[in-house]
Amino acid sequence: MKKKTKIFVKAIVITFSIFALLLIVGYVYIYVLPKGPAVTQAKPIATGTDSFVMYAHKNSQRKSIKVWTYKPKTWQNSDKILFVMHGGGRNADDYLNAWKAIAEKQKLLIIAPEFASKFAKFATNDYQEGNLFTFFGTRNSPEKWAYAVIENIFDRIKKDNQFTHATYDIFGHSAGGQFVHRMVMLMPQARISTAIAANAGFYTFPDETLKFPYGLKNTPVKLKTGLTQAFQKNLIILLGAKDNNPNLGIFRKTDLAMKQGGHRLARGSNFYQAARQLQAKNQLKFRWKIDTVANVGHNYRKMSQSAVRWLKTTP
């Protein structure tokens, strides 16, 4: 009996030791070791396709990020700057390519950050959920949020190119649509003029009883006071009328996600209506809009083409 007990205790100790070692290795890999490509020398953005690598966060050299750009020959300092946020595939270069012809026609400087990750195929919170929390569930400071990276990139390109822009526009599709609407809600002080969230897989509802990322519980945002500024931003919820197939792409099917709707089209509409009801109840100023694109499904190229009119009609 004593021998069996010793074996059992030994097995527990070994299991615990292995688990602790894995946690330590995981923590060091995720939060200590440097990540990302080598940082490039600062220089002005070239005409056509270009890219550069910079440190993602201020006052930290641990993470770097590659930023793709496309600058039309006719673009001038008075023309618009548009950030384009990729989907869950982290394929910023593909999204950049989708916007090149549009950029030439509309005189847009396209900035496409690449939030690369070896774990992109898993449900990670470092991109579409803003990196508000660590892998272990503890809170990150706002300067480590993914949304802060966009503001840092904007500062960098202004400095390197002597741009005088006070604001920028931002478009995101699928996971990028998740990123954009959460950035507006959680960082409304960001220098965004027009934000377009297209075909997001699921949303952060204006609900303090639901934990993030499904609601605002355990975030710094207070329902009434915190959303007052967010509701005054130009946020467009852009939906594809045929984006009603839950089997396309990575589609979250947890209980809380399914309560938002059975597909992306329904979830986007329900999210907008929830925000609208909260605004009406509290008599808040509201500049959000919803737009449904006919005959388009979960297609970032076609949704990009449909987003252009919102960049032209909003200030």
Can you tell me about this structure?
- The mean pLDDT is 91.
- Helix 2 (92-106) crosses helix 8.
- The chain is globular and about 85 Å long.
- The protein is of the alpha/beta class.
- The chain has an 8-stranded mixed β-sheet, with helices on both faces.
- The chain is built from 8 helices and 8 strands; from the N terminus they run αβββαβαβαβαβααβα.
- The chain has helices at residues 2-31, 92-106, 146-161, 175-186, 223-231, 255-258, 264-282, 300-313; strands spanning 48-55, 64-71, 80-85, 108-114, 168-173, 192-198, 234-240, 289-293.
- It folds into 2 domains: 1-33; 37-313, Alpha/Beta hydrolase fold, catalytic domain (Rossmann fold), CATH 3.40.50.
Number of structural units classed as domains: 2
Distance from first to last alpha carbon: 79 Å
Q: Which class do the helix and strand fractions yield?
A: alpha/beta
| Average pLDDT score | 91
Q: What CATH first level of the largest domain would be assigned?
A: Alpha Beta
- The percent of residues in helical segments reads 25-40%
Kindly report the CATH topology of the largest domain: Rossmann fold
Write down the secondary-structure element order: HEEEHEHEHEHEHHEH
Question: Strand-residue fraction?
Answer: 15-25%
Global Rg: 21 Å
**SS elements, strand count:** 8
CATH architecture of the largest domain: 3-Layer(aba) Sandwich
* Morphology call: globular
Number of helices: 8
Looking at CATH, the homologous superfamily of the largest domain is Alpha/Beta hydrolase fold, catalytic domain
Low-confidence stretches: none
Main sheet makeup: 8 strands, mixed
